[in-house]
Amino acid sequence: MISSYGYSLKSIAMVFTMAILFFSCQDNYERSGQEKAPLVYPMGIAENFTATYTEAREMLESEDSTSTRVIAVLTSPLNEDYNNLEFPYRTFPKGLLVHYFNETGEKSIIKADYGIIYSATNVIDLQGNVVIESHDGKKLETPQLFWDQDDNWIFTQEKFKFTNPEDGTIMDGEGMDFNRDLSFFNAHKTYGLMTIKEESND
Is the confidence at residue 58, as pLDDT, over 70? Predict the structure, then answer.
């Protein structure tokens, strides 16, 4: 009986030992899988970030060929620089505001809760409560849009609301592409046009 009891204890101990080894191996496997996930760190972080974009004037009134004009000013509470990666980009996790200017200096704005600038393609991806307000009062609201800075073309596949004070209308739709100052646009799908009620001065 004593030997039988000892054998049973050894068997139980062996079962527990194998179970512990099994769960330990399983846990280590899961942990090693997590550890293999690539860790990406920014090469630089800037608070209260400001970037000014300029371009050379095509027609110069002076002989100074280095004369430039400001075309946009981007500000953000936080900028993370990932230009050290194979596909470089910058992120603005706390939102951004862009003031951009036409050739006569009239200012329009773009603002969003989050932004990414892809350095290789010069495309800005704006996300979350994206609003564009042109210098003449036009306003576009959408959850996401892309701005191709090389072609000065902006587009979205999301739902949008476009307010035009010139003709007193509000347009709701889905999908739109347009130029930077909203003077030309192409709506892919519209849900209707509502006339803004004018307030009486009486």
Answer: no
